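Example for reference:
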Amino acid sequence: MASDPSTDDPRALLAEANACRDRRDWLGAAQAYGAYLALRPQDAGILIQRGHCLKEAGDRLQALSLYEQASQVMPLDFDVHLQRGHALKLLGRLAEAEDAYSRAVSLAWDNPLPWSEYAFLAHRSIAGRAEAPALRKDGIAPVAVDISDLIAWARGRRRPSGIQRVQLGVIEAALRQKVSPLMVAMLPQQMEWHRVPLALAARLMYLMRIDGLETEPAWREVVSLIEGSMASAPPVVFPQGQVLFDPGTAWSRPNHAAALRQARRASGLRYVPLLHDCGPLVQPEMTSRAMVNNFAHWLANAAFLADGMIANSRATQADLKEIAARHLPGMMPRTPVIQLAAMDSTREPGRSPLPRSVRGFVLCVGSMEPRKNHLMLFSAWATLIRRHGRAAIPPLVVAGRQPPEAAAALAFRENVPGLASSILLFPDLPDPQLRALYADCLFTVYNSSHEGWGLPVTESLAFGKVPVIPSHSALLEAGEAAGVFFNPGDERSLVETLEKMIFEVDFLAEAEKRLAEAPPPRSWLAVGHDLLSAAAAVPPRETPRPPLRLGHRYPIRRIAAAVPMPEMAAAELVRAPGDWFALEENGSLSRREIARLQISTPADEGPLLLHLELAAPLDQTVEVTLRDARSLSTPPRASVLLPGESAVATLPLAAGRAEALVEIELSGQGDGKGGKSGPPAVWLRGLMLCAMTDIASRVEYLENRLFRRLLPADELDPLVG
């Protein structure tokens, strides 16, 4: 062992410590490193070295303390967290070791060493886990990131689309924060969020960005670990006032609104979604009816549940304002703009998928859905070939998925003689090969009929390739620097623009000069940081819950409409979170023996009468008791519903309150014919609130329930019936 160092020279102390270490005098080295650290306490590298020496000497607890100190100095150094994991594993604290390895993976996602350590513990712990690994003592970032949409995508696909690329950028920015981020996701059909370990979010991001197939073991492993980790861990309890930023799409989750209400009530959660576009409402004919309805339903509820939104372009912000003014006046939260002018930091091209004989081509990137209008583009290419001959027109290379809706464009390509050899299709290219196409093409073309931003345009500019695009929506912003525009939906204008790009050398050269002089796109890391900062800056918002309109019937079901309506939000807001199953087309089924309704009422009205449209399940006789839970003077009302029977039940509500809490207490049993087992339940299908003295509204409501009211076809209200 070395003698006590007596010098105050840091270099001499360091030399002595290194010499002791080299001859495996662990305690002597630790002592000398300690003397050095007394002079230079913030030297994280030496903190780690002293920790190594103490670990080798058998003092694992003190070694862990030093690694923890080093992690405070260098929170973004993966090796610090790797060493923390090693020490914790040696101490038998496996859950904490797993969390430390997870942070190491999140900072070095392409390094196999921290991943192998993490994966070993993760596989071992999932089956028997009773609780999620504890959050670090240094806390978590103020913004939690909801990656439910990305995980849902990963269940069926590996290669990201545009929206998934945005989410990957946000994940990278979150992982690069000095404070450990919190990643969460919802499982299908559930009402809670679960923590996604940072290692799994980072590994998912890494594998989605590199070449590979869904069948590869590495991909299947990370998807399996994500599912297992979420299923075995309890729901996340959000810290008070936590911001939840959702960079994906939430409208396909049936319990999303109820989950938000539950979390807001429990912890003051602030919800901030990223609005990618309003396409389903701006162009409903371009997407499925289900998506239009889901988006309208989500937007109607976001008007009441979001503390703020972030729009990805000025065009998306303008679309939202127009839709809100028409259908949800005065209800939408503040919506700042963060433009998605970003590009992956990795631009190294892979091997081109094209034969060597194909050179000088035009590139079109994007899935072949109707909104991208490949049919018009293919027709324009056929026109160019007829006018100028096949040899004069460069091939068109199309890189993008081919959904069933692409059938018309694909049929046109096959049916026009010789066109298939001039339009080359690549439906599922990995990013390295896509980068090769960007690098080698003459220019790009993108014929979408509406965009919230237009990532293929940004990618084209990042690779120094001029994009030919229609002059509308956010494409005017995405291509502002050097895009060449044509009239939207005008095939003649598209053909003329393409002719200039192909045959007029000066025209293309001038566009390329503008592009060379334009500022380059930012990194996803920078844009992701801006998105997270904007979300964190959103202040809490009092949820506007206007009272129910007296005399107006509110359907309690999944309303099928192509526009957002306050009634869509009312159907969610009146049902207490956790007491009801998700809305269906024929109503909402209670999930507890006491199911509550939270009825916003006009405070300045007199006594009110609540009408509830109830129905018993087909296999249950149900005794229903209605109770105004906040009034001692109103006696409960009860009735019995036979299997499948529907009825309108009424309950007086006391005057002078902003909200009434109605309890629906149920008791009953199956019909004895092998029907549904379990607790009694009741369907709620609609409600109407009116003044007790408003006889006209009561009569009109009951007549509408009993009789079929015929209206002129152009006056049909989707809420009637």
